[in-house]
Amino acid sequence: MNSQELIELTKDLIYHATHFDVPYVKEIYADKFLIANVDKDGGVETLNKEQLVAFVQGNKNANIAPLSTKTEFHYAICDENMGMVVITRELELNGKPSRKFLTVIWENISGKWQVVKESSIVRD
């Protein structure tokens, strides 16, 4: 996979995740997935795959409107088994606009590209 293909894969991820596509989320995130969310004060909260799926399922069940897919791509690199994409996302969370700087780490696991790690830093 090249960098542009990794960007396209990340665009698909963003679309499906922001539209609360639970089967897609279960498939695209690796079982070992972990995200570290850093707030504006430097506090860190983590979320694993089970917690992420529960969040997405809860939003779907509550008929929450899809989140914004607005994304600025800064950098992408990929080799045979690993890829990294650096982006800024504009979201509205809990009724408040939020800009987040994210790093998404992809891994080719048994012939299938999955997200294994993410970091998210508030950029407001």
TrEMBL record:
This is DUF4440 domain-containing protein. It comes from Chitinophaga filiformis (Myxococcus filiformis). InterPro entries: NTF2-like_dom_sf (IPR032710). The lineage of its organism: Bacteria, Pseudomonadati, Bacteroidota, Chitinophagia, Chitinophagales.
